[in-house]
Write a structure and sequence with these properties.
Helix 5 runs parallel beside helix 7. The protein is mainly alpha-helical. It is globular and about 50 Å long. Strand 1 and strand 2 form a beta hairpin. The two termini are 27 Å apart. It has a domain of 93 residues. It contains seven helices and two strands; from the N terminus they run H-E-E-H-H-H-H-H-H. Belongs to the nucleobase:cation symporter-2 (NCS2) (TC 2.A.40) family. Azg-like subfamily. Keywords: Membrane, Transmembrane, Transmembrane helix, Transport. InterPro entries: Azg-like, NCS2. It is found in: Endomembrane system. This is Xanthine/uracil permease family protein.
């Protein structure tokens, strides 16, 4: 069950990436359809993918980061992506900081949604932690991840703190495996 969760998360992320690149688009008849592959976004995404694969094959450290930066720079130079600056200040947290609706969350209709998010988060984080731990060589001899409970507690604490602060969701990311691979 451990490896399929990590693989499922990876496939889901690949689907999101293909959709964001315009390679796959929504289709009411078939749910997913091919996008217009003559547009700049799918072409740049495909070139970026092959650049990352080539750099990874050549054992270049940071292949993913180099590929992302290269495609971003090409997109900016060709005018497909506007340059918004390197650093910007985050928006104010005042509208969302500690803005809790406890009574609304206790509504009977939301209980099933809360449990659904709970189980999705548990499987997502478990799969991510196991996938990254395997990549880093941190799995125990018996196939279990040592101290996984601590990692899940840290992740759940961060998720609660993030929601209290009004920030976007805080969680572990399967993309961390790319960083582990790069050293």
């Amino acid at each position: 069950m451990r490896s399929p969760i990590a693989a499922g998360i990876g496939l889901f992320l690949a689907l999101i990436a293909l959709h964001n690149a315009g390679i796959l688009v929504s289709n009411p008849a078939t749910i997913i359809g091919m996008g217009d592959l003559k547009q700049p976004a799918p072409v740049l995404a495909t070139l970026g993918f092959f650049l990352i694969v080539a750099l990874d094959h050549l054992k270049v450290r940071g292949a993913v980061l180099i590929g992302i930066l290269a495609v971003t720079l090409v997109s900016i130079v060709l005018g497909f992506t506007p340059f918004g600056g390197v650093v910007s200040m985050p928006p104010s947290l005042a509208p969302t900081f500690m803005q809790l609706d406890i009574m609304g969350a206790l509504d009977v209709g939301l209980v099933s949604i809360i449990f659904a998010f709970l189980f999705v988060d548990i499987f997502d984080n478990s799969g991510t932690l196991i996938g990254v731990a395997k990549r880093a060589g941190l799995m125990g001899k018996d196939g279990h991840m040592p101290k996984m409970g601590r990692a899940l507690i840290a992740d759940s604490t961060a998720a609660m703190a993030g929601s209290l602060l009004g920030t976007s969701t805080t969680t572990s990311y399967i993309e961390s495996a790319a960083g582990v691979s790069a050293g």
